[in-house]
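By way of example, what follows is a protein record of this kind.
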Amino acid sequence: QLVESGGVSVEAGGSLVISCAPSEGTITSDCVGWLRQAPGKGREGVVRINSGGDARYADSVKGRFTISRDNAKNTVYLQMNSLKPEDTAMYYCAASRGVASFSAMTYTSWGQGTQVTVS
């Protein structure tokens, strides 16, 4: 089980950091991704980082979002800058012991989500 935190309401153009940590165990060797789901839409992959630190971003957030991991804290962060109203969504953290992509099907552990609202 993963636990996300940090979601709040912000103004367009603002910045926000959300975080993800497991309630038990470790994710330091996992591929971890952030996926989001806006009302009435499907869940879409935003970014993922593998155990070696290689990150891949969706075109919609490239240059604005940065994923990082702190293995000492067993936590993955998503720094979101230049936020837009279309970034409004529930953001989910997900992890996989193997290779994962932007597809929700490639993840085996999930959090409950944290709401990010941009107005």
